[in-house]
Design goal:
By secondary structure, this protein is of the alpha+beta class. Helix content is 32%, strand content 31%. The strands form 2 sheets. A 5-stranded antiparallel sheet has the order 1-2-3-4-5, with helices on both faces. A 3-stranded antiparallel sheet has the order 6-8-7. Bound molecules: coenzyme A (COA).
Length: 179
């Protein structure tokens, strides 16, 4: 087991944010990570095997505190989302499609962002988004992120080149928004 505290739990009005439990989270995360709709703009194609999801969960479990701060999100007792930092300073998130459009990921990310800035773990959070991913871009803007730049042909995913639009949120801007 890594030195990562396994008992970190954050509760929001509708969600429980906690560290990954690979066995318990397998079914929910495999359903999500193998879903072509949810994975349409992800940095890898949908998982084709259970082993891929097991390796993904193991890597998440092995992340140590100076590398990242990542959470599994439960909604009504169901594992439905991952949100946080697999590797600082890039923020990442994915939610089960049947729950999109209810503001759940914004609800999850608010305390995760507050946590890294309040602890002084980061001065700036970044995000790398496919320009076609309007829901993700809208989500980042709602949280106060601003576009910094764009680049073409940044990801080769299942034989197709994808572009990136980059966003950032500084600690200073976050403090000004939440003061
Ligand atoms: C991006 C994602 C996390 C958004 O989560 P969410 O909880 O549905 O986010 P919100 O409910 O706060 O919605 C964000 C905004 O996108 C809009 N939106 C939601 N679903 C949408 C959809 N399917 N198409 C277009 N816009 C959508 C909403 O209208 C909302 O804007 P608004 O509050 O101004 O109305 C979710 O769609 C997802 O998991 N997508 C797949 C994984 C992914 O792309 N991750 C990001 C990689 S960079």
């Amino acid at each position: 087991m890594s030195s990562r505290a396994t008992d970190t739990v954050i509760r929001t009005p509708r969600l429980v944010l906690r560290r990954v439990r690979p066995e318990e989270d397998f079914a929910g995360m495999h359903a999500l990570l193998s879903d072509p709709l949810a994975m349409a703009y992800w940095s890898t194609p949908p998982h084709e095997s259970e082993d891929q999801t097991r390796a993904w969960l193991a890597a998440m479990a092995e992340t140590v505190p100076h590398e990242g701060d990542d959470f599994i999100i439960e909604y009504q007792g169901r594992t439905v989302c991952k949100a946080g930092f697999y590797r600082f300073p890039d923020i990442g998130y994915i939610l089960a499609p049947d729950l999109w459009g209810q503001g759940l990921v914004a609800e999850a990310l608010a305390p995760i962002i507050a946590r890294v800035f309040e602890r002084g773990a980061l001065e700036r959070i970044t995000a790398d988004v496919d320009p076609r991913n309007t829901a993700s871009i809208r989500l980042l803007e709602k949280l106060g992120f601003a576009e910094t730049h764009r680049a073409e042909r940044t990801w080769l995913i299942a034989g197709a080149w994808c572009d990136s639009v980059y966003f950032a949120l500084s600690r200073e801007d976050w403090l000004a928004r939440t003061a």
